[in-house]
């Protein structure tokens, strides 16, 4: 005789299956890339996206380099632009739904060239550097026409968010209780209980 689950258990299992969050697909995660400059460069200026498409901001990151240093593609893709724009050399590599941009670069690849992550695409040019008198590579990452992304996410160096950010909303009840911090030399130490506010 087969054992059949009680109707309530079956209903509960069905509800749990329906309400369980769908797991993120592999395409939702950031791709893993490589630094465009080797060795790992100093980030001179970080990502500061504009509030609107025409607003002020920094639509990429500036990486400290040296004139003539090889510039590499951060991800595999196809070169869509390799030439001069607004007086400085620019290389754009298309990665299907996103593209990476590199400037100022003297291109060593032609439009249509297929590149792998780490392949040389040019040399860092001092002409048009964002951080004169030093030479810097301005590295950008864009999705679609106008969605600027932090390219440091490609190399695991983007901003770290340990706690949820609630903006203008009350915090959920489990996070509202916290223990006063331990003070060492007048500075808070440790962390709030139950991941509460600091």
Task: Write up this protein.
Helices cover about 10% and strands about 30% of the residues. By secondary structure, the chain is mostly beta strands. A hairpin with a 2-residue loop joins strand 4 (about 75-85) and strand 5. The longest helix has 13 residues, at about 5-20. It is globular and about 30 Å long.
CATH-wise, what's the superfamily of the domain at 43-155?
Answer: Glucose Permease (Domain IIA)
Fraction in beta strands: 25-35%
Mean pLDDT: 74
Classified by CATH, the class of the domain at 43-155 is Mainly Beta
CATH topology label of the domain at 43-155: Glucose Permease (Domain IIA)
Summary of the model, kept short:
The chain has 198 residues and is mainly beta. The chain has helices at 7-19, 173-176, and strands spanning 43-45, 61-65, 70-72, 77-85, 88-94, 98-103, 105-107, 114-115, 120-124, 135-143, 147-149, 182-184, 187-189.
